[in-house]
Amino acid sequence: VTDAEALVLGIVPADLAYPSEISSRSSPSESINQRGNAQLERVIAAMRATGATGRPDEVQVVAFADERPRVVVAVGLGDDPGREELRRAAGAGVRAVPAAETVALSMPVPDAGAMRAIAEGALLGSYRFDRYRSRPSADGARRLIIPEPADPELLNQAIVTAEAVALARDLVNAPPSDLYPETLAEVARAMNGVDVEVLDERDLHDGGYGGIAGVGQGSARPPRLIHVSYQGGEQRLALVGKGVTFDSGGLSLKPPGELPDMKMDMGGAAAVLAAVGAIARLGYRVDVEAWLPVVENMPGGRAIRPSDVLTMRNGLRVEVRDTDNEGRLILADAIARASEDEPAILIDIATLTSAQIVALGRRTAAVMANDDTLRAGLVAAATTAGEDIWPMPLPPYLRSELDSRLADLSNVAPPDAAMLTAGMFLREFVRPGVRWAHLDIAGPAYNVGEPHGYTPHGGTGAGVRTLIQFAARLHGECGS
Ligand code: MN
Ligand code: MN
Q: What's the 73 CA to ligand 2 centre distance in angstroms?
């Protein structure tokens, strides 16, 4: 069947049915049919013995003493698996393979798009982050053998997408001692195919970026606004990503138990940077102007105080009542700046509110927008890409919840609908006429639990695939 050391084998429920049952069903999965060898019969027997039924997320590892493959990882696909089921199963299977140089995947491939999903899942599941161990794990570079048909263009999309997700995960996982505003700017400057301009603390002050400069002033590591441009032509897309490299809460300090995960608060900036790099590599006919406001939110002698008033890039003045609501302050400046170029579409992405997790949990992101078609387009792009993003409203009556007794706006609203009032806050900084959407990825950006499917613990790269897919749709609309 394969000379690979390891085989990841997709199993559908019919594969585990006994012969008498098979005769009464439609034909068993081709993956088994094509090969009826003794090794595979043993895998099936092992799965039956443990009560496996071929449901999604079932994983069973079977080892063989003197044969190849040495190990078979059987993964459940469920009945009639779609692309996301294939992607997840490929990722879970590859993740479960013990040290092996070559891993072959055998799964039903109805079309080239399924092949792409399997390749993408396998690559996403291969991700490791062990550069902070004194001894990195042995299973470094693996060769993956993907089932045919291997459409080169789709395979390239899978590779570029998975590498972009890996970059975003690396950036999120990096400790804040190494990843701070200037070092994130260095990562941007090193990217190929894009132009990068970095505004430093003086530029931010002189340019009227009161939100970014204000939030950043409490840290010994000064803030940056990173501007990444890709000139692909025609459609003009602006992206904004929240980049808080560590969110202590500032003087409105977070409780100690919440602090260790707060390096993840730049997941939006990581997603935007990775996506722009991928869009450039794929050569999409889209102009992208990306803005990454990057700060470290720290308490200190120069930090902003609850009750301070900041003047933002668009002239609005904001009363800071809670320095832990810093994300909207830096996004506001970046959204105002991105709006000045009057893009056709502006999308911001941010680990913005814990209310997102309350509302939708840790695997489903939210999208809010001032345009229903754009919001639906992002949900559709996410579905195609295999991400879960759910549409949320921006009810106009909530705007008054952000009224300040002192200034134009407060950065705090009552606790009800806190995800939506954060969106309403951002909306104040979008220039009229600009179609805008806001993605809140607070939960999905960082997996605090065990790995699942192709998703590791820690940084997940949430949003990267959706942004690339959204650009792919704009590229497709351009014609040639
Ligand atoms: Mn915060
Ligand atoms: Mn934050």
A: 40
Q: How far is CA 226 from the centre of its chain?
A: 19
What's 307's DSSP letter?
A: T
Looking at residue 347, what DSSP letter applies? E
Whether the Cβ atoms of residue 212 and residue 204 lie closer than 8 Å to each other: yes
Give the pLDDT confidence of 140-159 residue by residue, as tens digits: 668 999 888 779 999 999 99
Q: What is the mean pLDDT of the chain?
A: 93
Is the pLDDT reported for residue 313 higher than 90?
Answer: yes
Residue 470's identity, in one-letter code, is F
Nearest C-alpha neighbor of 389 from the set 452, 336, 347:
347
Averaged pLDDT for residues 379-394: 98
Question: Taking the mean position of all CA atoms in its chain, how far away is CA 297?
Answer: 22
Closest residue by Cα to residue 333 from 360, 358, 314 = 314
Examine the residue annotation and report whether 242 is marked as an active-site residue of this protein: no
CA–centroid distance, residue 161 to ligand 1 (Å): 29
Residue 212 is predicted with a pLDDT of 99
The residue annotated as part of the active site, out of 42, 128, 254, 317, is 254
Instruction: Take residue 250 and report the two structure tokens written for it.
Output: 């500032």
Q: Do 461 and 164 contact (CB within 8 A), yes or no?
A: yes
| Model confidence pTM above 0.85 | yes
Q: What are the structure tokens assigned to 51, written together?
A: 């009560």
328 has catalytic annotation: yes
Out of 95, 328, 375, 465, the active site residue is 328
* Kind plus residue range of the DSSP H or E element containing 464: helix 464-477
Ligand in closest contact with the CA of 352: 2
Beta-strand relationship, 286-297 and 243-247: parallel
Cα separation of 195 and 104, whole Å?
39
- What is the 8-class DSSP label of residue 96? H
For 102, 186, 466, 472, the CA distances from 194, given in Å and listed in that order, are 34, 13, 20, 17
Q: What's the CA gap between 90 and 116, in Å, rounded?
A: 11
